[in-house]
Amino acid sequence: MSCICLGPKRSGKTHLLKALQEPDSIDETSYSMPTIGTGIYRIHFPTKSPNSDKPKPPPADGTTQAHHHGGKKHLPKSIQILEIGGSMAPLWRQYFEDVKKLIYVVDTSNLCQISAAGVLFYSILTEPRLQKVKILLVLAKMDYSYRQMRNEALLMLQMSKLQKQIRQQVTIVEASAVTKVGLDPIYEWLQWP
Question: Please, what's the b/e burial string for 31-47 (b: 16 or more CB within 10 A of its CB; e: otherwise)?
Answer without folding.
Answer: eeeebeeebebebeeee
